[in-house]
Amino acid sequence: MAKYVECYWFLEKEHDDVGNNHPKLNPDPAAHLILADAKQNYQYSQDEAPQKGKGNHWIFPHSKTFVMDHSQLFLVVGIKFRVGSLYSLNINSPQPKMDKVVNIDINELIQSESFNVPDLLAKAAEYPQQTCDVLDEWLLPWLLNSYEDKHCELVRRALTLLADTPIARMGTALHCSQRTIERSFLRVTDLTLKQYQSMVQLEEILNYLYQLEGESVNWADVATKFKFSDQPHLIRFLKSSIGTTPGEYVRQRDLAIDVYGNFE
Prior knowledge:
Layout: E1 5-13, E2 24-25, E3 32-36, E4 41-45, E5 51-54, E6 57-59, E7 66-68, E8 74-81, H1 85-88, E9 101-103, H2 106-110, H3 117-124, H4 128-143, H5 150-161, H6 170-174, H7 178-189, H8 193-211, H9 219-225, H10 231-242, H11 246-252, H12 256-260
Antiparallel strand pairs: 1-8, 2-7, 3-6, 3-8, 4-5, 4-7, 6-9
């Protein structure tokens, strides 16, 4: 399970919950499979027309911020897959997958008619461990039919190094050409090495800022902590990643992590 699934998560909005109805979902290199009631609406907006539908759906890796419509009551269970897992699981979807939200028939996906989403959702809040056990039981036969090749193996090795190794040195570290690494990484993840590194860095910065909620932010210190050459470079990075300036973000605190907390 852990080879392909990073975690399960649960989120619910009830009648007395008050908060931001349109939280933003920051760029993410991982895919999430969202389990929801067949009548439950969803909507994710970027620069283009909103992507919307009902029920179970994929949120594929996305390089842009999604604005979610959470104005209505909802209850969902999410399955976060490890980066590159969809390649091994042979997920068929409209191309390209990047920045897409796509409806899914979960029983057809895992080739099992026993996957009962309504029953799972009804028990998720009160029985989290039992819910995880049921998901394991349902998903494991599907995951065991995964496909592995030389590209998967190279990407898996690259992912262990990208947090601490400059991209220019990846070829030396992995004993192959830079071009080979780039091509395999794009093939498996739909991302370039630079895109992935930027998304991981963004998540680390946002987690850090989340811990500073209610405190003033010294952007020069943040730039130094995350190894930016200077403060303006950090500001440009955040603006291009989440669509607002750092000052606007701190005032609004409108990302999903700020509205719902850190799922880690």
